[in-house]
Amino acid sequence: RLGTRHADSSTAGRAPVWPGVIAIIYALSGPRNFFVRLFLCFIGSGTCALVYLWAKDIFSRRIALVAGIIAAIYPGLFIYDGWLYSESLYTFLLLAFSYSLYLVQRTSKRRWMIVSGVLLGLLSLTRPNGLIILVLVFLWALFAARAKIIFWRTAFESVALIAFLALAIVSPWTVRNYVVSHHQFIPVATGDGIVLLGAYNDLVLSDKTPFKGLWTRPSLTSPQLVRAYGGCAATCEVQRDTAYKHQAAQWVQSHIYDMPYLLSLHMLKMWTPTTPEADVPMNQFPDRTSSRIVAGMVEYLSIPVFILAASGLLLTWRRWRHLMFIYLILLLSIGQCLFFYGSSRFRAPIEPMLILLGAGAVWWITQKFADRRRPNNQSERIPKEPGHATT
User: For residue range 215-265, what is the model confidence (pLDDT) as tens digits?
Assistant: First the structure.
């Protein structure tokens, strides 16, 4: 064993924003999770409001109302508000950041660049993989400038300001991790190793487990390795993470011919409406009427939303400039699910974006009906795209 975990040991296994929010709420109201769940209800409502605002900017007020209503009743958004995990907060921050970046693209105003940088910093401290989105910002700026949606100067200024603010917000926590881990570089948190070890093992290929193609506890697959690093604090968390990654890599190498099948399971599980995890509120209390109602909503509403989103992805090509960053987020999320494992939890951050794409499909259908009713001598008025080419 490399160390024994004590109650007051400093660790680097968690991103700090969500535990910090819970701590603040507990300090104000006492250790009762009702107020944390109530806070998440407001966060979920904010996500619905952002869906409405973005749909209104891209399509129309009527389409935005439809999108907002779907967001309010779609279980893929509200189900995590009763679950004390970071999904709801991360989803809200990701959507808010994406919308603020759209406003940068639309207005080229510096205040939206500042908002984007702050949101990206908070996003990165909510989940460790949030920093990857900085790469997407570079790609967005490159594509937007080359397509003459924004000036090159605006693209450079946006990337520089957003990156500076995001890294400035993350850096103090990185320095803290460097100190408590005895000079080891941990940008936000460790954890990739335990995810990979739980995703690449014999049990995830077994038909005898409900977690086939998903994730299972490393203690069930590599108990000796887990015991060797059990209870270690930040000083050995990097070594533990590295050991877990090494074990997962060895398994992949020895099962290389099973990988296409396992990756296909990852993709399938990503688009499975729900997960068998026992922590889901409706799985904790399956006999309650509310749980049965929500379970039915998950089963019967998820697939139509997926179909609408897929249709919208194809039918909204005329609005590709507005949806460009959404495309990048979708590609990143799919790539992460393929690399780690597919789950409805991993799909959670893109749920509001799926609703936006579905709203695009509704917009396209209404436009077709409007075209049929419009006299032949009246052509459709297409709003100008944002950017310096039209302003």
Answer: 988 888 888 887 777 666 666 788 888 889 999 999 999 999 999 999 999
| Cα dihedral sign, 318-324-330-332 | positive
DSSP character string of 185-250: --SS---HHHHHHHHSSGGGG-TTSTTTTS---HHHH-HHHHHHTTT--HHHHHHHHHHHHHHHHH
Smallest CA-to-CA distance from 18 within 35, 3, 40, 44 is with 40
Q: How far apart are CA 232 and CA 219, in angstroms?
A: 15
- What pLDDT band is residue 49 in, cutting at 50, 70 and 90? very high
pTM for this model (two decimals): 0.90
DSSP code for 319: G
3-class secondary-structure state, position 1: coil
Decide if 247 contacts 222 (C-beta within 8 A). Answer: yes
pLDDT at 379 over 80: no
Percentage of the chain lying above the pLDDT 90 cut = 60
Cβ distance 95 to 49 under 8 Å? no
* Rounded Cα gap, residues 3 and 93, in angstroms: 36
Half-sphere exposure of 318 (CA within 13 A, CB side): 13
